[in-house]
Amino acid sequence: MKWPRLAWPMWTNVAVCGTINRTLAHRRGKRREMPPHLYKAGFLALVSALCWGGTLAPAAAYPTSLIFAPTGEVAPRGKGNMSFYNAFYGGNVDSWTGLNVGILPAMPLGDTGYRLPGLEVGLDLWATPGGEPPVKPLGNLKLGLIEEASWWPSCAVGFMSWGFLHPNKSLNFAYLATTKTLTWGGRDLGRTTLGLARVTPGGADLFVPTWPLPTGQQAFFGGHEFPPVGPFSFAIDTVGGVSEISGTCLVMNVEIVPDTFLSLGYAIAHDRSLAYPDAYFIQTYTNFDIAKAFLPQATE
Q1: Of 48, 99, 171, 185, which has the fewest beta carbons less than 10 angstroms from its beta carbon?
Q2: In this structure, what DSSP letter does residue 27 have?
Q3: Is 11 helix (H, G, I), strand (E, B) or coil?
Q4: 235-244: average pLDDT
C-alpha cells in the first residue's frame, strides 16, 4: 500500500456536521431535537478532528467492505455509513473521510426466494497538500447481483477509486465480489469474501500487479470477517497489486455506542522496498438510516 503524506485542517470535519445540525434544527422554521444518528456523526467528526490530528485524505472510495476489500453485499436503500480513517507510519499521518449510501431497494426475483440487492454509491475525499491535485474526490458504486440465500453467496459488481475530476490520477478499479456466511454444526464461523478486479489506471505508476496475478492489470482480493465476541470483532483482508488501495490488513473493531465503531488495525504493503512499507491505523465509522435521521418520526 502506498502511503502519500497527507494533511487537512481539523475544522473541516467539524464544520460539515455542524452544517447538518443547523439545517435540521431550523427545518420549516421550527427548532427540533437532532436525531441520534446525527449526534453519532458529529461525535465521530469531533473525535477524528481533535484526537487524530483532524486530517482528511486518501479516500480510496470504499463501498461496503471488510477493511479495504469490497464485499458482495450492498447497503439497503436509505442506509449507509460514514467513516474517518488515519494511518500512521514513519512519523507521518495519512487520513480520509468517506460516505456511502444505498439508493435503490432490493427487488425479489419472482417466487424463487432470491432478490436483487440494489445499488450503493459513495464519495470520498483524498487531500494531498503540495500535491497535484491537492484534493482528489473519488467516487464508487456497487450494483448487487443477488443476495445470499441457502448455498448461494451474495454477489455484486462495482467500480471504485474513480477520480472523476482527475482521470490521469484515477485507479479505476472495476470488480466482481462474492461474500458467503460460513456455518458448521449450527455454529457461526464468520463471512468470507473473494473477488477479482480489472484495473485500468489513468497513469502508468498508479498500479503494479503482484502475486497471484503478477502480469496484466488484474488483482485478486479477499478476506474473512470473524464472528463478534461481545462488542469486539476481527477481520483480515488483502487487495492485490501495489496501489493506493492495495495491501494486506488486519483489524479489531469495537462497538463504542450502538452502530458506531472504533477500529484499530495494521496495514502491510506489498511493495517491501518502500522506506515505510507498513502502517497502523485508527478508524471510526457509523451506520445510519436516512429515513430515521432526516424524516419526522411519529410521536406518542
Answers
A1: 185
A2: G
A3: helix
A4: 95
* Nearest of 54, 40, 5 to residue 285 by alpha carbon: 40
The residue ranking higher by pLDDT, 92 or 271, is 271
User: How far, rounded to the nearest angstrom, does the alpha carbon of residue 41 sit from its chain's CA centroid?
Assistant: 15
Instruction: Name the grid cell of 51.
Output: 484526537
**Residue 146 pairs with which residues in a beta bridge?**
155
Locus of grid cell 503494479:
208
Q: What percent of the chain has pLDDT over 90?
A: 50
Closest CA to 61 of 145, 196, 158: 158
217 conformational bin, left if phi > 0, alpha if psi -120 to 50, beta if neither: alpha
The confidence score (pLDDT) of residue 265 equals 96
pLDDT digits (tens, 9 = 90+) for 30-51: 334 445 555 554 544 444 433 3
What nine digits make up the cell of 114? 432470491
**Whole-angstrom Cα distance, residue 25 to residue 117?**
34
Beta-strand pair 247-257/173-184: unpaired
Percent helix, strand and coil across the chain, each rounded to 5? 15, 45, 40
